[in-house]
Amino acid sequence: MKARENPFSSSRILKVRYIPQATDFDQLISRLKALHYRAAIVGPEGSGKTTLLEDLSRRFPPIRWFSLTLDLPVPRFNFDPDDFVFVDGAGLLNRSEWKHLLRIPCKGLVVTMHQQGQLPTLIECATNLDLLVEITRRLIGDQTELLPGVLSVLYQRHNGNLRDVLRELYDMWANDRYLDLPFLELSEDFRSL
Amino acid sequence: MKFVEIKLDKDSYMPGETISGTARWQLEESVKSIELRLFYYTEGKGTDDVEIVETTQIPNPAMSGSQQFQWQAPQSPFSFSGKLISLIWAVEAVLLPSGDAEHCVFTMSPNGQEIDIRQHQE
Is B119 on the interface with A (CB under 8 A)? Predict the structure, then answer.
């Protein structure tokens, strides 16, 4: 299958927005307000933290967005007192960078972290198999019915990291292995990979 | 009813050829401008990239209207698809400042066909 036809391409996955589990956006906003708009979204990799941060940021203009990654130096935090500040990957900040960030006046500060830390927790993101099934359904529709066993195996293989599961599904579609899906879940080779 | 659409005169163009078409729109409220963009983007497993090659502004557009556009196609890159990445050419109309947009894709290559590199990825 060509990349542009792959239902698990990055651009199609990005269209599936955060699906709240046991809460909703109104409750999240209320809790954020109660925390004086300074809070952390906590959770393991591939649990939807960045997607939720993006979806929250759309409700608080004007915003300043910072994405921190291992391969780039931490940017200079520069924003106005009227800005809502969103920092993705704040777990990469060291103690003095945190101190600096927390000291700059702003209307709100919401970050993503793998573990609880310097800011109170807004929500702990977690995944489950039903969530994976729902996201997959939004990407491939009724074809999802063909692969409940496959999704279960992939979910366990990637320890609940949905980003990695979706990447593996991309590869399966890219290599046309999806044609074998009804048989794949019965295959010992697939289960033991 | 609000709409904006792009119609290209052809589905495929060769490098250096004139890319032409018409933008049509009907608005529910006035916009600052409509920007027509010739661009290409990648789609696939990794992060998507976008490169805007040409733009044409339609400042203070009427509530409904149409405008023809044309640009000269650059020499590269060609439209292609592999298993991991596709490069796609398109023209889009963007309502500003809202950012609402509609686009129309086309193929850009010497023979008018998307280059399929999948067989080289086996």
Answer: no
**What does the alpha-carbon distance between residue B119 and residue B82 come to, in Å, rounded to a whole number?**
8
A170 interface with B at CB cutoff 8 Å: yes
Distance of CA B85 to the CA centre of its chain: 18
Q: Tell me which chain A residues have a C-beta less than 8 angstroms from the C-beta of B84.
A: 3, 174
pTM for the full model?
0.85
Q: Which of A5, A8, A9, A163 to mutate to test the interface with B (most CBs of B within 10 A)?
A: A9
Portion of chain B with pLDDT greater than 70, in percent: 97
Q: Residue A170 — φ and ψ, nearest 5°?
A: -55, -50
How near does any CA of chain A get to the CA of B64, in Å?
29
Query: Is the sign of the CA dihedral A151, A156, A157, A159 positive or negative?
Result: positive
Amino acid at A112: T
CA distance B98 to B94: 8
Q: Does A167 touch chain B (CB under 8 A)?
A: yes
* Per-residue pLDDT, B2: 81
pLDDT per residue as tens digits for the range A87-116: 999 999 999 999 999 999 999 999 999 999
| H or E element, residue B26 | strand B18-26
Using the Cβ of B79 and the Cβ atoms of chain A, whether some distance falls under 8 Å is answered with: no
Q: Which residues are bridge partners to B71 per DSSP?
A: B19
Q: ∠ at Cα B106 (B102, B109), nearest 5°?
A: 150
Residues A154, A31: Cα–Cα separation, whole Å: 34
Q: Average pLDDT for residues B40-50, to the nearest whole number?
A: 92
Q: Which residues contact A138 (CB under 8 A, 6 or more apart)?
A: A16
Other beta carbons less than 10 A from residue B117's beta carbon: 16
Dihedral of alpha carbons B64, B69, B74, B76, sign: positive
ipTM value greater than 0.85: no
